[in-house]
Write a structure and sequence with these properties.
This protein has 265 residues and is of the alpha/beta class. It has 10 helices and 10 strands. The structure holds ligand LHQ.
């Protein structure tokens, strides 16, 4: 993996790549440089066979504070962006790269995750948060709608009622509350955060990577389709999973009463 990005730290530990958004002085607000770096690194991680799990996190006391409002307002003044939807396409590329990544992606959220940073966390497959995490769909505070896939992810994760509440009131949702409503998978005290994220990421990196990719395809496609379509897809994906080395070895290990070792193939 390339490691010389600006505003992004890239660290690989075995099969786990950790991508750390690195503009702590503005709580990791997205400027174009950081957005392009994160997108490039996510796309590279998808192609790199040595990577079997990706963690996205933020440097310092925050996950991210959304679009950098200073650079957005400068772009508006200079008419650098004709329509904001053009600018949003860069975020959409990141969202799609995360969702289409054929391996698990974890968002590790310490402190605040506001605006489009919150929705990048929601695009990930799993979320771990600290107890002092603050999830804020901040958009309505500045009279905008949730973007970066927020309008799609929120109702699917927490239901229409809670999605509406978070979007309209734009109030902070704490880590424990986020866990209670299903916005995050796990909320832990700050002191346990790194160990929890590392353990989960290493566990996934040592898991059946091909099956995880097929599970992502099944779950995400099924959220959009009827039962008949989902059952059809399930069959096709299972044909695929059935032929993997990890599947054959894991069944053999079960029969021989030993622990399987997954190779990701
Ligand atoms: C910031 C930011 C920030 C710049 C903190 N920008 N500096 C919209 C339109 C177009 C295309 C793309 O997408 C979007 C989507 C969006 O993401 S819109 C939503 C953008 N985000 C926000 O509205 C959140 C703005 N930030 C805040 O409300 C607060 O900073 C939060 C609640 C995140 C954190 O509050 P505190 O913990 O009290 O920290 P703070 O406010 O003191 O922030 C620390 C520093 O970070 C501060 O700078 P300073 O020089 O005073 O120390 C802030 O100005 C800076 N900062 N967010 N988005």
């Amino acid at each position: 993996m390339r490691t010389d990005y600006q505003n992004l730290l890239v660290k690989q530990d075995g099969g786990v790549v950790t991508l750390t958004m690195n503009r702590p002085e503005v709580l990791n607000a997205f400027n174009d440089t950081m957005l392009e770096a994160l997108t490039g690194a996510v796309e590279e991680a998808a192609r790199d066979e040595s990577v079997r799990c990706v963690v996205i996190t933020g440097a310092g006391r925050a996950f991210g504070s959304g679009q950098d409002l200073k650079s957005l307002s400068a772009a508006r003044e200079t008419h650098a962006v004709a329509r904001v939807s053009e600018h949003l396409q860069k975020y959409h590329r990141l969202v799609l790269a995360i969702r289409n990544m054929p391996k698990p992606v974890i968002a590790a959220v310490r402190g605040v995750a506001a605006g489009i940073s919150c929705n990048i966390a929601l695009a990930c497959d799993l979320r771990v948060a600290t107890e002092d995490a603050r999830f804020i769909e901040a958009f309505a505070r500045i009279a905008l709608v949730p973007d970066g896939g927020g309008g799609y992810f929120l109702p699917r994760l927490i239901g229409v009622g809670k999605a509406m509440e978070m979007s309209m009131l734009a109030d902070e949702v704490s880590g424990p509350e986020a866990e209670r409503i299903g916005l995050v998978n796990k909320c832990v005290p700050a002191a346990e955060f790194e160990a929890t994220v590392n353990a989960l990421a290493q566990r996934l990196a040592n898991g059946p990577t091909r099956a995880y990719a097929l599970i992502k395809e099944l779950i995400y496609t099924s959220a959009e389709s009827d039962l008949q379509t989902s059952l059809q897809l399930e069959g096709e994906l299972q044909d695929n999973a059935f032929e993997t080395e990890d599947h054959r070895n894991a069944v053999q290990a079960f029969l021989e009463k030993r622990k399987p070792e997954y190779k990701g193939r």
